[in-house]
Prior knowledge:
The chain contains twelve helices and no strands. It has 265 residues and is mostly helical. It is elongated.
Amino acid sequence: MPHLMELKSGLFSSNLIEQAPIALLKPFSALTPSGSSSDDRAEFNSEIKRVTAALCQATADFLRENKSNAVSEYKKAIEHSNAAIRLAQQIELGKKAEAASASLYYCRGIVALILIKIGDGSADLNKAVADLAKSAKLNPVAETYLRLGEAHAYAGNLDAAVESLEKATDLDSYCAEAFLLKGLVHQARGDEDEYYDDIYEAIMLNPDLYREEFEPIMEDAREWEEKWDKTLKSPESIAMLQAWAEKAKKERRAEEAEPPISKDG
Length: 265
C-alpha cells in the first residue's frame, strides 16, 4: 500500500503531542462528582489532577527531548486515567457522567496513541482504538473522530479510518488535518480522485499543511481554475449568460403583468 508507512510516521498530526494537554485539560475542569461521599469525590478529583499533571510534565519532557522521562509521565497519565475510570464507575457523576467517561476514555486513548507515535513499544494500539471509539460514542466531536481515524490508519484499517475521518469532517468542515489524513488514506487505498480532492481541501483550509509532494495537485487545481476563468470570460459564455439574463427578465415582467388571482375564484 503506497504511503502507509507515511501514515504511521504521523507527519499529518505533528501537533498532537504539543496540543494534547490543552485538548485534555478542558473537559476535566468541569468534572465534579455529585451524590457520593466527600472522600470519593476528593479521590476522583485527585486522580484527575494527577492525570493533568502527568500530561503537562510529559509534554514538557518531550519538548526538551527527554524521551525516557516523557514516556514515564505518559504512562503515569494512563495509570491515573485507569483509576479515575474505576472511581467513575463506583460513584455518582450525575448529569456529567457521559462527559466524564468520554473525557477519560479520550485521554487514555490519545496518550496511548502518543506513545505509539514516539516509538514506545509497550503501547496497545487496539486499546487506543477501543478507548477512542468509546469516547466518540459518548461524545461525538470532530477531534475524537480525527484521532480515532488516525489510530485506525496506524493499525492499517484504512476503511475504518476513512469512515471515522468522514465523520470528523462532517462535524467540522474546517478540520484541515482530518481532510489531509483522509486524503493520505485514500491514496493508500488507491482512490486517486478522493486523494486529490481531500488534499486540495486541506491545503485551502490551512496552507501550512502544504508539502512539495502535493505540488501536482495544486498545479492541476491552478490549471483548472485558469481554464474555468477563460471559459467564463469567452464571448460564447458571455452571450449565453446575457441570453439567460434577458429570459429571466422577461419571465419576471410577465409574472408582474399577470392580474392578481381573485379570492372569490
